[in-house]
Amino acid sequence: MIEIGSTYTLEVVKETEFGVYLDAGNLGEILLPNKHTPPDLEPGDTVEVFLYLDSEERPIATTQTPKAEVGEFAYLMVKDCTPVGAFLDWGLDKDVLVPFAEQHRPMVVGKSYIVFLYLDNQNRITATSKIDKIVEEDDQHDFRPQQAVDLIIANSTELGFKAIVDQSHWGLLYKDEVDQRLSFGQSIRGYIKHIREDGKIDLSLKSGQQIRDSYSQVIQDYLQDHNGFAPVHDKSPPEQIAELLGMSKGQFKKAIGGLFKQRVITIESDGIRLV
């Protein structure tokens, strides 16, 4: 079923002086105005369009690309505040409305906010900044460790940064594992680091392989700076490993295991040695 607020590839059924009409299935024929019609588009051709309602609340098509579609989060700037609410720039000629009742706090022109787009009871595309009621924080998901995901940085806590994971769930990036500047509303690629017993999601900005590679490099750098030897091995106390190399024993064991298989190091009774 074709719905307002999404992108579709539709067939041109006829031309008029105002533009071309597209076959939108259950929504009937929808106008693509001349200003958004690609040149030489003829009946029988197909075109990718986004569907929304015009100022008279009639379905209309555009080849403009919105910054978000219905069912998605986005970081959008307020262009105007009116008696009915705030209007946000989302990439189309017609701005999207955030009614006063859907504002987490009063919005200010020129500032940007994370919002979620939905259809109201009159099928109009509307936005809300009350994202806590939208983002899921339960264990009903099928994310898996090392899975690549899209993140939107949405908040900061004492532990780190809360992020919206793949437009659906909350996840946490621990601040001591983030080595770059993150800003509110930023979209960034990340990875599922760990799924806790309660289903909550721990995140990382590096894949498992990237993390292992970085620990391996730390070990190699230490060896090169200390005559090719480090007085720790897989039986060393975790505290000694952490003090010497700044990593957990588990991270150390995985890293030296990889280096040993690559014949970069040897593991001896009193430590590890660069080959």
Automatic annotation (TrEMBL):
Start and end residues of each S1 motif domain: 3-64, 69-130, 144-206
In the record, what terms sit under GO molecular function?
nucleic acid binding
Q: Which Pfam families match?
A: S1_2 (PF13509), WHD_CvfB (PF17783)
- Cite the SMART domains for this sequence: S1
Gene3D superfamilies linked:
Nucleic acid-binding proteins, Winged helix-like DNA-binding domain superfamily/Winged helix DNA-binding domain
UniProt record similarity statement: Belongs to the CvfB family.
Q: What is this protein called?
A: S1 motif domain-containing protein
The taxonomic lineage of its organism, from the top, reads: Bacteria, Pseudomonadati, Planctomycetota, Planctomycetia, Pirellulales
